[in-house]
Amino acid sequence: MRRQVIAGNWKMNELIGEARELCAALVEAGVGRSAPEVLVFPPYTALCAAREALAGSGIGLGAQDLFWRPSGAYTGQVSAAMLKDAGCTYVIVGHSEARGRFGVPEEGFTEEVLAHFGESDRTVNLKAKAAIAGGLVPIVCCGELLSERRDGRADAVVRLQIERGLEGLTAEQVAGMILAYEPVWAIGTGEVCSSEEATRICGILRETTARQFGPRAAEAVRILYGGSVKPDNAAELLRQEQIDGALVGGASLKAADFAAIVRASPG
Fold this sequence. Notes:
By secondary structure, this protein is α/β, with parallel strands linked by helices. It is built from twelve helices and eight strands. The chain has a single domain (about 5-265), classed as TIM Barrel, CATH 3.20.20.70. It has helices at about 15-30, 45-55, 80-85, 110-115, 120-135, 145-150, 155-165, 170-175, 195-215, 215-220, 230-240, 255-265, and strands at about 5-10, 35-40, 60-65, 90-95, 135-140, 180, 220-225, 245-250. It is globular and about 45 Å long.
C-alpha cells in the first residue's frame, strides 16, 4: 500500500524568522509523527533555518526547484548538490508557476513577461533526471489551463506532460518518485476540482506511467493532488483511490490548517 504524502509548498513566502516560527509550530503540532509522510518546501533562503527547526521532527525538507547542471556559470541557479547540502531530500519540478501557467492572471504578466519563467516539458525532464542523479526525490507536476479544459484537452495535456517529463528514466527511478496533478485553474483561485474528477485524472497519470514503465512502476509511484487543498475539502480528496496525498499551497502557511490537512489523511 502506498504511503500518503502531504507536501506544503510555501512558494515565495516566509522570511527566515517566519520560517523558523512556522516550522516550530508544525513540530509542536506533531505532524511529523503522523501516518502520512509530511514535507515542507520553503524558499531557498529559508532552507537551512527550516532544517535546523525541523531536526528530529520527522518532517521532511524539500526545495521548490533546481537547475539541471551540477555547477558552472549559471547565475541565479541552484543545483541538486546545493540542495542536498542544505538538507533537502525532495524537490518540486515543473510546477505550473515555473512553467508560466497561472490560475489567476497577474497584472502586467504579458507574454513577454511570462517568457521569463520558461519551463518546458524538456527542462522538466532534465531537472527530474538531475534530481535523481543528485540523490533527491523529484515531485514532477502536471496540469491543464482552464482554456485547455474547456476545449476538452485536459486528458491529452497531462498525458503529454508526463510522457515528456519522464522520458528516458527507468522503471525503478519512476517507482521511487512522486507525480502531482495540479489543475492550473484551481491554484490560488479558491476553485477545487471535484474529488471524482481529481481521482480520474490521477488515474490517467497512473495509466500513462504504466504504459511507459510497466505496471509495477505505476503501482508504486505516488500521485498527489494540488489545487486549493484546504482543511474542509482534504478528507474527501485524500480518500480517493488514485490520490496518494496533497501538494498544498496557501494552507501550508498556516500551521493549524496544514496540521488539519495532515490529520485528514488516512495515511
